[in-house]
Amino acid sequence: MGTIMTTQNTVKVQLVRSPIGTKQSHRDTVRGLGLRKLNSVSELQDTPAVRGMINKIAYLVKVL
Hints:
Elements: H1 2-7, E1 10-15, H2 24-32, E2 41-45, H3 48-56, E3 61-63
Antiparallel strand pairs: 1-2, 1-3
Domain Large ribosomal subunit protein uL30-like ferredoxin-like fold: 11-61
GO cellular component, one term: cytosolic large ribosomal subunit
InterPro entries: Ribo_uL30_ferredoxin-like_sf (IPR036919), Ribosomal_uL30_bac-type (IPR005996), Ribosomal_uL30_ferredoxin-like (IPR016082)
């Protein structure tokens, strides 16, 4: 079971700023990354698509 996690790289992101007052597409991206409340953390697979989503809302999140 543990080998599955080591073969696939993951990235942890934390919502550090409120998406209130941001573009609707940015709020949708926050939800798409699985982030709900402030300081919530989501562990995602490290794919180019996820990287692009993180770059889009880089001012709202922190990569752990």
